[in-house]
């Protein structure tokens, strides 16, 4: 009889100003004893019938329950202020919380605290490779969002094209582990409250003749190395807002991962909790708006293709996009001062592998101008690029995992100001007057955040953060 190890995980799956969705799950490993220690091999979803007790799924909104569970939420003085129970799911919605308030929480399954104590994490480096004890444990805490009518500065992270995985040691152009460590430091030290993704959340693990054939992202186990492990000590503390990339549906890979994305990001379950605005779509196309306080609104735009057109061009979704980018000059009371679209494909791109996206230039950019958008966040190209066109800043952050080391060249076409071929995420700091964007690549020698060096079109170095004022000129 083989021996199995179950490693528990925790997920702050959704957050609003007065509630939170808290979730839990696990991954299973086959243990093989060796003289030099234990060897752990991740169990494929197809082999979960062999674990004890047998399972069909391990994590996500639809996973079968591990047992009767309750979640307890505490204030900073340690007093319990809210709780919720379930026997049917591995997640609960905790309500009755105060806006803009810090809390801690614990999960109990069958009256035992879930994921308590030192955990095993997957490592791949000088200390060896495998699931090992590294002296780490969960610090389960979060801060609720401000009220919808409350102005509050926001620090958030943006990560794109990251789902390559951390099973093997990092290389010069594969740096997901290092970027993940930097994001965790930003959550610890820079008050990051949420994270956006710009798509390609998971890539196929194996290919044949250049075509993805295995570990494409349509099973739970595919997400262990690409999402749950690298961001383990982040996603229990801040919510993640995803968008879809071409590797997340069947545009590039044989498998459409949307169903698994829905499950692992708890998108349907978040509908009422996140106070999504308008008429979002969470099925055939991923389009939604979410507000942070009174001033900031994020707009997720699905730029993948179906029937030869990008989804935002289809009549099903175009009205939502157009209404979300209404004319700012006629905006009434309560309209956000910052509208921040995020998507996978970039309107402007200097390469080296992709060009400008014509359909976005034709259909979306006029709406961005009409809505007085100041910054658009995208991915797709595996590098960093900052373009400026008609007072709108276009930021490509596609270096969260595998980076393209070749330099872009189509600077005039893409209106490029700066670029970099380094792994990174974006730290964005925004208040009522300005947005400051800094691409960070990892940790420095003192474990502080290390900003990447950007280059101009004529290869002059630039290290200063990108400052984007809300008002560009008088009367704007």
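^ structure tokens above, recovered residues below v
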């Amino acid at each position: 009889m083989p021996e199995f190890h179950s490693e528990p995980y925790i997920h702050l799956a959704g957050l609003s100003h007065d509630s939170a969705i808290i979730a839990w799950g696990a991954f299973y490993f086959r243990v093989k004893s060796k003289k030099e220690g234990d060897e752990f091999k991740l169990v494929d979803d197809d082999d979960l019938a062999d674990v004890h007790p047998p399972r069909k799924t391990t994590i996500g909104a639809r996973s079968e329950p591990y047992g009767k569970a309750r979640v307890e939420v505490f204030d900073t003085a340690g007093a319990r202020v809210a709780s919720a129970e379930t026997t049917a799911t591995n997640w609960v919605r905790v309500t009755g919380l105060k806006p803009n308030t810090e809390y801690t929480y614990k999960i109990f399954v069958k009256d035992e605290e879930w994921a308590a104590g030192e955990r095993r994490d997957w490592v791949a480096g000088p200390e060896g490779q495998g699931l090992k004890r590294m002296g780490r444990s969960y610090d389960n805490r979060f801060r609720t969002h401000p009220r919808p009518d409350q102005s509050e500065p926001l620090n958030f992270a943006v990560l794109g094209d990251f789902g390559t995985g951390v099973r093997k040691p990092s290389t010069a152009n594969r740096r997901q582990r290092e970027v993940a460590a930097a994001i965790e430091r930003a959550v610890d030290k820079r008050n990051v409250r949420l994270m956006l993704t710009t798509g390609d959340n998971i890539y196929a693990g194996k290919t044949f003749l250049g075509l993805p054939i295995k570990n494409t992202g349509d099973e739970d186990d595919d997400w262990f190395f690409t999402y749950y492990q690298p961001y383990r000590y982040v996603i229990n503390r801040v919510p993640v807002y995803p968008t879809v990339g071409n590797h997340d549906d069947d545009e590039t890979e044989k498998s459409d991962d949307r169903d698994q994305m829905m499950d692992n990001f708890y998108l349907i379950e978040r509908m009422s909790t996140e106070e999504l605005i308008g008429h979002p779509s969470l099925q055939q196309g991923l389009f939604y708006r979410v507000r942070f306080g009174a001033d900031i609104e994020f707009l997720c735009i699905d730029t993948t293709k179906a029937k030869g057109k990008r989804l935002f061009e289809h009549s099903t979704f175009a009205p939502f996009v157009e209404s979300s980018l209404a004319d700012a000059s006629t905006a009434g009371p309560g309209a956000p001062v910052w509208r921040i679209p995020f998507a996978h494909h970039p309107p402007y791109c200097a390469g080296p592998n992709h060009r400008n996206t014509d359909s976005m230039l034709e259909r979306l950019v006029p709406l961005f101008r009409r809505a007085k958008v100041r910054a658009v966040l995208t991915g797709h190209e595996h590098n960093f690029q900052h373009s400026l066109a008609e007072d709108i800043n276009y930021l490509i952050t596609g270096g969260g995992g595998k980076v393209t080391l070749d330099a872009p060249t189509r600077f005039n076409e893409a209106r490029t100001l700066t670029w970099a071929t380094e792994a990174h995420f974006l730290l964005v700091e925004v208040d009522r007057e300005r947005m400051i964007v800094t691409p960070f690549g990892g940790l420095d020698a003192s474990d502080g955040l290390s900003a990447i060096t950007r280059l101009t079109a004529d290869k002059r170095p630039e290290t200063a953060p990108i400052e984007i004022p809300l008002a560009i000129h008088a009367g704007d």
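Helices lie at 176-189, 224-228, 258-264, 318-324, 358-363, 365-370, 411-414.
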